[in-house]
Amino acid sequence: MRSCTICGHGLSDVRALRTTCEACQSRITQQLALIEGEWPHLADALEPARGHSGPRVSGTPAWTLPAEQVLNLIGPGGIHSRLYVRYADLAVARGLQPTAMPSGPDARLAVAIRGIRRHLPWAVQAINLRELADEARQCAADLKVALGTAEKEVTVPCPGPDADAPCLGRLRFDRDRNRAYCRTCRIDLDPGEWLEHALKIGYLTA
Ligand SMILES: [Zn+2]
Ligand SMILES: [Zn+2]
Hints:
By secondary structure, the protein is an alpha+beta fold. It has two domains: about 15-50 and about 60-145, no CATH class; about 155-200, no CATH class. The chain has six helices and four strands; from the N terminus they run αααααββββα. About 25% of the residues are buried. Bound molecules: zinc ion (2 copies).
């Protein structure tokens, strides 16, 4: 049985001839949509002076970012370029000439996202998409942080696999996977079990 090149899960019969599972494919699609939707707001986040005197436009963070983070987003190696490189890789892997890289960041990002979307249905049947998946996730995460929309990661003391084997690790709730996981004992809770534990230790109140 072949397994997904991104998450390593076995591929079902319908996807046996592919390289990527459906969940990983749709995660990439969602992250591209998020990046496309959030990108236009980045200019506001990077210019904190704007909107300070007047009423704040909703969704416009009023704080500055460290220069290094700004570069990471819109500098020469920013999100637009990181995704353009992934797009060009897909085109080349398919034996096509990539669309020339536009010099403006907005246009470059648009070409990158459009191109990845166009080649994705082919790519999930043909090549290892690990790097693309990592890049899309990282770009989406960087944007979320910059825009102040990153949700704080929730961690609580881990209950351990059973009452006789207490664990010193932290249980982390992952909103993307909708599971709570502990790296120490590798316990993996579904949302119901997580809720029950969080109530029991008083982290959440009913
Ligand atoms: Zn997968
Ligand atoms: Zn644990």
